[in-house]
Structures are given as C-alpha cells and as structure tokens.
Predict the 3D structure of the following.
Amino acid sequence: MKIKLMIAQSLLFISVIAMGGTLDDLPKNPLGYSQLTANQLAKIIDQKDFPLVNVHVPYNGEIPGTDANIAYYDLERIVQLFPDRKSTIVIYCRSGAMSYKTAVGLVKMGYEKVIDLTGGYNSWRSLGQPLSYQ
C-alpha cells in the first residue's frame, strides 16, 4: 500500500511540474504537509527557489544545497531564520522520523507550505547522490 501511495505521489508530482506547476502545488497529507521523494528533489535541486533545511541531530552530513542545519525540535530557530509562513520550506533528516515531527510542528505553528523529504537523506544517498559535510 505504501509503495502504491509513493508511486501515485511521484506521478502526480511529475504531472504537476510538467504542466508548469511548482512544489506549492503538491497535495497535502491529512497532517497538513506535503511529501517529496529523493527522485523528485534530485530533478529540481539545481533550480531550487526554496529553503532546504536539515533537521537531523546529531549532524551527520547534508544534501548539497542545504540552507540551514537546525535541530528538529528547535522550531523557534526555524521561525527566526524563515519567518514567512506562507513560503515553501523543505525539511529532511536522516530517515524521516525527525523531519516528520518538525513538519507537524511547523504546520501547527501556521506554516502553510511545509514539504518533507520522504526517507530523508538515506533515500537521497540510495540514489547514489552525495552528502556534503561542514
């Protein structure tokens, strides 16, 4: 069932982008945020126009192009750095557990366009994509 949902989300994303849509057009799940696969992120990362935030602790590397590394529980720091609650923000961690908590918290704080990288940077690395290190 989970694989069917991921396939459906991927096809919807591809069709949204192909029709001139953006990340903002991704559907939201029942918790109020959207999800993005590593394949989807790889296709758009070179043209990104959104903040990409690593919320994993402890720090174990990041996806190239990451704008900030903020602990998943430090929502106030995210608000300080990215105060526009109507703009898109993409978050990730290692596997998705920490970024899930961040996504839910940001939605509760009024963020309207939260996108979580499904599977975190583990899914990114599974595509053969690199991590960078500070």
